[in-house]
Amino acid sequence: MGACLGACSVLSCVSCLCGSAPCVLCSCCPSSPNSTVTRLIFTAFLFLGVLVSIIMLSPSVESQLHKLPWVCEEGATTTPVILQGHIDCGSLLGHRAVYRMCFATAAFFFLFTLFMICVRSSRDPRAAIQNGFWFFKFLILVAITVGAFYIPEGSFSNIWFYFGVVGSFLFTLIQLVLLIDFAHCWNQRWLCKAEECDSRAWYAGLFFFTLLFYTLSIAAVTLLFIYYTHPGTCYEGKVFIGLNLTLCFCVSIVAVLPKVQEAQPNSGLLQASVITLYTMFVTWLALSSVPDQKCNPHLLTHFGNGTILAGPDGYETHWWDAPNIVGLIVFILCTLFIGLRSSDHRQVNSLMQTEEGQSAPEIMQQRQVVAECRGQAFDNEQDGVTYSYSFFHFCLVLASLHIMMTLTNWYRPGETRKLISTWTAVWVKICASWAGLLLYLWTLVAPLLLPNRDFS
């Protein structure tokens, strides 16, 4: 643990860390808004925790975790044991260490969630804490992390598992909101470009990507049926794939209905194709968590420390499989998306608690010129914050819980002697895919059901 934190302590060598956000990244992004730089640094803190969690799962570090006080319950052995469908309590130490590391990052951001409630502008004294004192924030994160590793095992991991389930589900919904908004903005901008330039190239681009996404979705459905279902078994997987395919087909039809097109001229198949592809991705993640070795080729049977869960077919798989790698990449992109972007749609900005700068354009331009001359970021929140400090930190709390469940394959500490994959993970992911489809369907039919409201 000390080695992991020591590797991360290079951040403290940056002399600017005791100052404000404009100083920290002044050489990397001069004349950038103060709000953007601050969110990037907090996101970097989260990614630092993710990096330490990944290191915890490495065999060399995991082998040293036996020295910590919460390793095994009293009377349990820490010697790896090979059993049919069972595993001893000492063979998942990396997963339990990830629980504590992610608890530390979640607790760190939750403190800021509470502390930054109702900050209206950078003139609020708390805004100085939000945008500065980075060295002391880093020390607080390190202190919480060290303390988390000395929490007695007891029921800590079992209770924290349920927090992880809820947090992961909510963060998946946030991903879906951002994806739907991204698809709408993409389609709207390219249609505007096509009208402004009077060029068919933009229409060709929309058609190409729509066809590409639907092609990838059909290929994904085919591969899911081949690898995750078998004749006479795997009925749950067949139902999930078939149902999600049907729902995707339905929302694609609704997206091009004349009534919907009349109410929302920018609605089209591009958005539907993006949602369809993402739904197939979430379905893949769900099926990769099915606790049945006949229906799940990714079922965890081989651990980094050499312990093996012997399956009925005698095969082994590494814990770090393709679904987790892709899920980690999507997590990183989504978290950066939260930190960098404000939406073009007022409803999404209201939901995500983000908006454009409050100052007049002329004043903002003057501040930007002055900051560019000094090689620093400029304060764009003197007249009003551009994002909710509290809600941003709450999103990072959910992100910490989501990555905890992703890295541990939804491991439940109270089930150390059972197969690691559980139906809890399957249902959470499947329900998230259904919620995403319903959310997208609502964006299509809402203008028809509520004609008196402005959905522009």
Overall helicity: 55-70%
Count of discrete domains: 1
Tally of helical segments: 17
The string of secondary-structure elements, in order, is: HHHHHHHHHHHHHHHHH
Average of pLDDT: 75
Report the end-to-end length measured between terminal Cα atoms.
Answer: 51 Å
Pfam families: Serinc (PF03348)
Organism: Mustela putorius furo (European domestic ferret)
Protein name: Serine incorporator 2
Signal peptide: 1-26
Notable traits:
456 residues; Serine incorporator 2; membrane; mainly alpha; TDE1/TMS; 17 helices
What this model shows, in words?
This protein has 456 residues and is mostly helical. It has one domain (30-67, 92-299, 321-355, 386-449). The protein contains 17 helices and no strands. Helix 8 (156-197) packs across helix 16, helix 12 runs antiparallel to helix 17 and helix 13 (322-340) runs antiparallel to helix 16 (389-407). The chain is globular, with a radius of gyration of 24 Å. The relative contact order is 0.17. Its main location: membrane. The chain crosses the membrane at residues 36-56, 97-119, 131-153, 159-180, 201-227, 239-257, 269-287, 322-340, 391-411, 426-450. Belongs to the TDE1 family.
